[in-house]
Amino acid sequence: MTPLRSNQALVADEILLDGRLALFHRTERWLAVADLHFGYELSQRAAGALIPLWGMATISERLTELVNEYEPRRVIILGDLVHDKTAAGEAVQLLRGFAERCAVAVVAGNHDRQLRGHVEMVDSLETDRFHFHHGHCAADTPGRIQIIGHHHPAAVITDGAGLRLKCPAFVQQSSCWIMPAFSPWAAGTRWASDESSRIWLCTAERVFALEPCSRRPVGDARASHSEAATA
User: Fold this and answer.
1) Which of 94, 122, 159, 195 fits a 20 to 30 Å CA distance from 68?
2) Is the residue at 169 inside a domain?
3) What band does 66 get if pLDDT is binned at 50, 70 and 90?
4) What's the CATH number where 41 sits?
5) How far apart are CA 134 and CA 37, in angstroms?
């Protein structure tokens, strides 16, 4: 078996967390990402905000890297594919490119309402072990772990000398796993510390597991949960 890299963590049997904000099942070969908010910059520019046109390229390039590397049978997008209808055409082109490589399942999110008619979506999907949905509506899934997005979890690590670094986080609870937002525009949501959760900080180069009691990363840096709101 190939050794794990520093930006990978085995978070459950056969399931890898990649620091590039994705989950991959090594035997079922699905790759899951959440909250792309594709076209956020187009939406903001249409509203008069002069922000750079780099988010869509970043999302496309990072997702292409993941698909090239893992060669999944199916990509699962856990809702909020787009920020709004402004980038509907660009989102369709993005999906077409990946659909030439593998199956693509788009789970509808609260930002995707205006995308219906442009993209085929489902409200949820299931495997033997998991129930995938966006997370903006409650779901009763006895016997399955929910994998959701929507909340954009994040945490902050500090060095005790004033340096603070906020990172997207993957949260594991006993019956629900919460994905980090794939969008580079997502600032991250404060995640309350509790003993029933395991929290992983994600960076492109490394994944950190936070200790349950102190909420410090395994290693040397200190950590606390982010208090920032999402973008």
Assistant:
1) 122
2) yes
3) very high
4) 3.60.21
5) 13
Question: CB within 8 A of 9, min separation 6: which ones?
Answer: 16, 17, 200, 207, 209
Among 151, 154, 148, which residue's Cα sits nearest to residue 177? 148
230 vs 41, which has greater pLDDT? 41
Asked if 67 and 99 count as a contact pair (C-beta separation under 8 A), the reply is no
Total-model pTM: 0.89
Q: Is the pLDDT of residue 65 over 50?
A: yes
Provide the terminal-to-terminal Cα distance of the chain, rounded to the nearest Å: 39
What b/e readout covers 162-196, taking b as 16+ CB neighbours within 10 angstroms? eeeebbbbbbbeeebbbbbbbbbbbebbbbebeee
Alpha carbon distances (Å) from 110 to 18, 59, 83, 94, 149: 25, 19, 9, 20, 11
Q: What is the DSSP string of 101-155?
A: TSEEEEE--TT-GGGBTTB--BSEEE-SSEEEE-SSS----TTSEEEE-SS-EEE
Tokens describing residue 150: 């929507």
The domain total for the chain is 1
Look at residue 51 and tell me if it is in a domain.
yes
> Can you give the residue range of the structural domain that contains 72?
8-134+143-225
- Residue 93 pLDDT: 95
Is residue 1 one of the residues assigned to a domain? no
Task: Tell me the pLDDT tens digit for each residue of 3-60.
Answer: 999 999 999 999 999 999 999 999 999 999 999 999 999 999 999 998 888 899 999 9
Cα–chain center distance at 51: 23
